[in-house]
UniProtKB/TrEMBL annotation, chains A, B:
Family of this protein: Belongs to the class-V pyridoxal-phosphate-dependent aminotransferase family. SerC subfamily.
Listed pathway(s): Amino-acid biosynthesis; L-serine biosynthesis; L-serine from 3-phospho-D-glycerate: step 2/3
Entry protein name: phosphoserine transaminase
UniProt KW Cytoplasm keyword: yes
The protein's required cofactors: pyridoxal 5'-phosphate
One Pfam family cited in the UniProt record for this chain: Aminotran_5
Domain of life: Bacteria
Residue ranges constituting the Aminotransferase class V domain according to the UniProt record: 127-326
SUPFAM superfamilies, A to Z: PLP-dependent transferases
Entry keywords, A to Z: Amino-acid biosynthesis, Aminotransferase, Cytoplasm, Pyridoxal phosphate, Pyridoxine biosynthesis, Serine biosynthesis, Transferase
Catalytic reaction equation(s): 4-(phosphooxy)-L-threonine + 2-oxoglutarate = (R)-3-hydroxy-2-oxo-4-phosphooxybutanoate + L-glutamate; O-phospho-L-serine + 2-oxoglutarate = 3-phosphooxypyruvate + L-glutamate
GO biological process: one example: glycine biosynthetic process, by transamination of glyoxylate
């Protein structure tokens, strides 16, 4: 039986994926050269569709990596000489911070207990931090940081670079890219594609920083460093052979999203999130993990469970649906429900119905 | 019209790919969690099939990255403290060397003119080089280094690590992994898959070196560093979300190859290579670029052309076949013909027939 995946990524494939994949196979996209005009037009198309979808200005380039985790490393190598600052409120923001330490940067952090989020007013940015790393959506804890707070943070620290992890929320957050210097996501979350491609958006200020660091005491990496990516990007190429097929698919999905309209997608995401939170708030077997509504993720809903989560996951599976367990120490006491465009209001409704009978 | 791709990668997809892809879609491989038992069994299966195909002993782990170029960086960060040594005889061996310089290692090199290869007897390894980097098959120039020479090189420098780039030849070269410390390839060459996955084979000596370097003055990278990859590998997991779909497909193709038998694959590759070299040697419009037979690549045949290569490429295309142009400065005066398992004796025969009429 085919399952509907409400997992936070890898997740349910967007309904049009299999059709685009078939077209790609018919057009032999898996065999074309990454130095051909055909590939350049695929990259350009994907770039244009993402630019429209996320309102990305010309100051920013769009690059491809193997995964979003790779982008953590690339940002730290290319945009930080000595000190970075991390808002840590979950396992993935912590990993970004750990990457900085592993790369021998001085990683400052401000930390919140699991399940709590940050408001602008409480953030204290260290004086010498060159980069502020924020996570729009913590996949592990279901906590979001509102774009309004992210924007204020940048405005009050205009000379520092700000990096936004939107791995499990893009294209949901309405980020102002005139303020956001760099952001990144992976395709196996809200874009509903198989895993295997990271997308890195970075502006000219990031490039300038990388160009400066390149001539310093520390290296900026050899593979996928920003100056090399940018140089190739000018002709819609990549330094090494990229995942051509997935870039093709991402362009097609972004086009599908643009046809729906990002405002409609965001409205539907809000609507489905409301349905889910209303349910977990009202049902005696569940309670929302994140207490503060403005910190509640709209794309990954985390609920405490009365019964062991494994029991609930099994029950739901009998009805052809897959929800995720809690993350790390919350594995047995929480479930995580992805709210991505691949699952519509009706499917969320059916999930709620099944959960309600537990 | 569907074309047959004789390009050196991305290349013709292996004939069973579309069927495996369909099965993967039916089984929703694109949606399963990379922390699930199902993923672990996919990784294990792929590992076992590759191990059988390439005769990889238990001392070596098999890891996945975004591309083979990423592996260049990972090897240099994890296995070289100060000095590496590179046998440079084409654009890709040169890039490996350039990566070392970019990572602030002292990169020694011994260089050959484009189109010439190395024999063991002429190689002079610098005393303090920690790693010897050799390219089994230079995709750019169509030059190979014979496994027998690679093995001698390691035997006479047993204390140094040896890294073998087999990007565009695996599983063709019969490497002795009791001698080869680390090797790597990408899936869009002889394995006939779309691009987007690098495969890194490394032994415990590489791990030991990485563990030592980790506590030194330089970092070993944060993403996909060897200790992290190895730790996760013990349970057939990966540190970050990998390209689950392509790992699944690679396992299936490796199984298909094992059913044929690697010896048969290698024999057929030799046979097709002979056909191609015999043709380019005898036809007045062509001549083999690599003069020395023992240095002639069996998987990427490079031929000088009398007419501009673009004319030949266009002509061949009219018959539904794609061959590659020369690399870099040889773009207009050479063609490159991939000889991978995806194209059989009959197809090579047809290509020769068409080329013969030019």
């Amino acid at each position: 039986m085919k399952q509907t995946y409400f997992t936070a990524g890898p997740a349910e494939l967007y309904p049009t994926v299999s059709q685009h994949l078939q077209t790609a196979m018919d057009e032999q996209i898996g065999s074309i050269s990454h130095r051909s005009a055909k590939f350049r037009s695929i990259y350009q198309f994907c770039d244009e569709q993402l630019r429209e979808l996320l309102t990305i200005p010309e100051s920013h380039g769009i690059f491809f990596t193997g995964s979003a985790s790779e982008v953590w490393e690339r940002i730290l190598l290319n945009c930080v000489e000595h000190e970075s600052f991390h808002l840590v409120n979950g396992s993935f923001s912590k990993k970004f911070c750990d990457y900085a330490t592993a790369l021998q940067k001085y990683a400052h952090k401000q930390e919140k207990p699991f399940g709590e989020g940050f408001d602008y007013s409480e953030i204290e940015v260290p004086e010498y931090a060159e980069l502020i790393a924020v996570t729009h959506n913590e996949t592990s804890s279901g906590v979001q940081m509102r774009p309004v707070d992210i924007h204020k943070l940048k405005r009050s620290h205009a000379k520092k670079l700000i990096a936004v992890d939107m791995v499990s929320s893009a294209p949901f957050p309405d980020l102002d890219f005139s303020l956001v210097d760099t952001a990144f996501f992976s395709v196996q979350k809200a874009f509903g594609l198989p895993a295997g491609l990271g997308v890195w958006i970075a502006n000219e200020k990031c490039l300038e920083k990388a160009e400066t660091l390149k001539h310093g005491d520390q290296h900026i990496g050899a593979h996928n460093n920003l100056p090399m990516l940018w140089k190739n990007y000018k002709t819609y190429e990549t330094p090494a052979t990229p995942n051509v097929l997935f870039i093709y698919l991402l362009g097609k999905i972004a086009q599908d999203f643009n046809r729906i309209g990002v405002e409609n997608l965001r409205r539907e995401t809000e609507e489905k999130a409301k349905m889910l939170y209303k349910f977990v708030e009202s049902h005696p077997q569940f309670s929302p993990f994140v207490k503060n509504d403005r910190h509640r993720s709209r794309t990954v809903v985390v609920a405490n469970t009365q019964k062991p989560s494994s029991e609930i996951i099994s029950k739901v599976k009998e009805s052809g649906m897959v929800v995720g367990s809690g993350y790390g120490q919350f594995k047995d006491t929480q479930i995580r429900i992805a709210n991505f465009p691949a699952t519509d209001v009706e499917q969320i409704g059916r999930l709620i119905e099944v959960l309600g009978k537990i």
